[in-house]
Amino acid sequence: WRISRRIAVLKDGTIVVGSSTPCNDESFAWYTPQGIRKPLPETPPSWLAEITALLPLPDGGFLVGGWYTFSCVQGSPVIHRGEVWRYAANGTFHTLTQFSETSDVFALALRDDEKLWVGGNSAPQHASQIGIFNGLALLDLANDGLERIPAYNLVVSNEADIMGMSLYPDGRVLVVGSFSHVNGQPRYGIARLLADGRLEPDFAPFADQPRRWGRIALALADGRALVGTNDGLYLINTDQQVTNLSALNNYNDPWVLAQQPDGKVLIGNNGSLRRLRADLSTVDMDISTSGAVYNVAIIAGGKILVAGTMGVIRLHNDGTIDNQFTAPAFTNDAGDPSTVNSLAVLSDGSIIAGGIFTRVNNTAQPTIARLTSTGAFDNTFPGLNGVQSVNTICAQNTDNAIWLGGSSSAGQPLIAHISATGAQQTIATYTALSNTGSIRSVLCASDHMRWAGGTFSLIDNQSFYGVARYLQVRSRVFTPLVIR
To answer: Where in the chain is the domain with CATH 2.120.10.30?
Structure first.
């Protein structure tokens, strides 16, 4: 027996059926109107491992969409290549169109002008496949063909996930995350925006590497950039030449980047903190931590605050634990240790800590807390109810007002603005069309929040795709960016 996943009735009343039979060559069947099985075409579409779309044509023929693999190894397909096949009414095979080797064809729709929309999914493997199929393609059926129309290079995908942002002194902003295009232009995991929010047109250091996505970014004062990606740590020079620092330093999984005043760079990941020398050539210091590092902050005298699964600790400049700093216990309602995701240091030395905790020293304190400069818990500072997590914090230098980014209890991205005493000023919930989203990065100027980035598509029903720019008066500014 076989599960029928796609069924279409052709112009002559016959029925074509598609199913999923990877490695078995039995994905297609053809029946008469009475239900009698017809012979397969001479070039059968059952060579497709799975048929995911069927479309009758006005001339009596039909189209078959699915994915193909040329062989299987131990029952697993070698490739997963989306294809569309065209047949005449009598079953004669005309032609086919192929996409990349990690693609799917999910939908076929015919226009009145013999043009065919193809909807699906694709991830290009190398530079020659960039732009071939970004989720929606247009084919020309004229002359019994399936010719791709390259002018229709549309990008259709889920919301971008902006994971990190970093400001240059001239106001430009480095943006990294899980995305492939900005305004339809290939930008694989990293892009740079001008101070007014426009895409910098010539900055594309990974333009030939479509499998990359960015995790953390650090804009350097001299115009260079450090970027942590899914496969390593990279230095991008002003001429966009890329150096793989993970190859030099055996550091392949960076989560946190921060530069000290002396130019040395701290790098945190799942279980350790490393410091590179100012020339970024060699490791200056390795520090073992008791958990994953999610954020660091450099404070007066060169001491280092570290936040993560260990809560909050303070280190001397040489990496040893500062025993003069004793942080409280951050836990959930069950009393289990919980995570601190972000830190901000105010002008008086006190510390704002945000995360997914709900209690501090067994006192109800949801997602945000204030500590003194020695780590003592300030129980007069209120927590944030209705907030599931705080992922990022920045503070204004002028009045110590605090901006927080995270997600609401309903799983939607949010921004909160509070005073230095914890009094709530504003809270805004953005909208993620994927039903779950978050703010992962906020950047502050001396007197206002300047940028917010995360997973969202709408703010007050206005389109914002992963990034919003703010003016000093706190109004959001539409930036001409579509990031996918």
So the answer is: 6-155
